[in-house]
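Title: Request for sanity check on Glycosyl hydrolases family 28 prediction

Description:
We are preparing a figure and want to confirm that the structure record we downloaded matches what your pipeline produces today. Could someone re-run it with the sequence below and paste the raw structure tokens into this thread? We only need the token string, no images.
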Amino acid sequence: MNLVRCIAVSGLIALAPLALAKDYNVSAYGAKGDGKTLDSPAIQKAIDAAMTTGGTVTFAPGVYLSGSIFVKSGVTLKLDKGVTILGSQKIADYPMMPTRVAGIEMTWPAALVNVYEQKNATITGEGTIDGDGKVFWDSYRTLRADYEPKGLRWASDYDARRPRLVAIFKSEGVKVGGGLLLRRSGFWTLHICYSHDVEVDGITIRNNDDGKGPSTDGVDIDSSKKVLVAHADIAVNDDALCLKAGRDSDGLRVNRPTEDVVLRDNIVRAGAAGVTFGSETSGGFRNIEAYNITAISPVPVGILFKSAHTRGGWGEDIRLHDFKLQDVAVALRVTMNWNPAYSYATIPASIKNYPPYWVALSTPVPDEKGIAHFHDVHIWNISGTAKTAFEVDAYAKYPLERFKLDHLDLDAGKAGHIADAKDWTFSDIKLKTADNSKVLLTESDHVTGIATTEK
């Protein structure tokens, strides 16, 4: 009898958290949902209350003007259809916090919706998170126009502080999806940094609805592991699905790879590429698989690897397959000297006072540490149309090694070129070119299985 009673009591204890979990409607905490009242304090009160029971924060239909909010451990933020969280256009409503942005650790405005050093949090529903970001796009463009003539193109992205839409930082067991619409982000849309066991399933991203916002990336997976991104429909004005791992001396110091990532069943309607690695490559990439990816014009590139000779890092065990490309400019592009005006930082001698992160950006990195080494990459089942099939450039001293490409079926305007390749193999290749060209190689390349010519 005592044993039965003990088991019963134990069962009640185990079930107690589930029994206590409940909904916390933000209206009960003072949120108006009128699109005018700043509702973030009320929303945060509801989140903090829900944390005590592992509850769900809910909203009546409406537009909730908000600065940064922070989803806590065990809490579900549920945005049903007809609910919009609308980002404040006042940068003061986004508190400055330690984070990493574009590969550098620094303080930066918090995102509109944050999961910051938490566990088992969820953001879901068929509602909308709208950054209303045009004011931040415009401020960036104004600053960049001032900076570029001064040789400070590289600094403009860091000095024009813009809020991301959703940021997951140093967190685990996070889920995002369920039909969410993410739109008009002030900067990157969904940034997953220093986190693990993150599932993103069922999101739509639209950042070009109010003009094309600069650097409005879609999903950035940054020095994180065990991440899934599935059923994403993306239209942005920069990288769409992007793997990142730190920049230059600061990224090499942190030295955290992005690994164990799956990207599947996604469509990119606008952005830099279907899938992008870099340009922040310092910590490296391992065990990355992307498949069932569709990239549609005006997307310029199907698969993109980009780095710079100060980034460093590596990539290995990368598997990219079952891509459908519709009228992209380039099917496969690899560049290890990407965007020099942005990638290489030199502080003009005339400038004496500058922020500490400028030092991290401008610290020299020698070639032996700065060249990224990509090897053991398998690309297969790629079909569609492109203006150019291949644009591949690395360094003769540090070639791209052991790329395997098979079952490619491409109609292209021209074949393009592959430079600085070692032990590349092609098989079952159907490459039809409008100009009847063959892939152009350099003399030092080691490429077999595809019709080629040499420079």
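Thanks, this matches our download. The CA atoms of residues 72 and 118 lie 6 Å apart.
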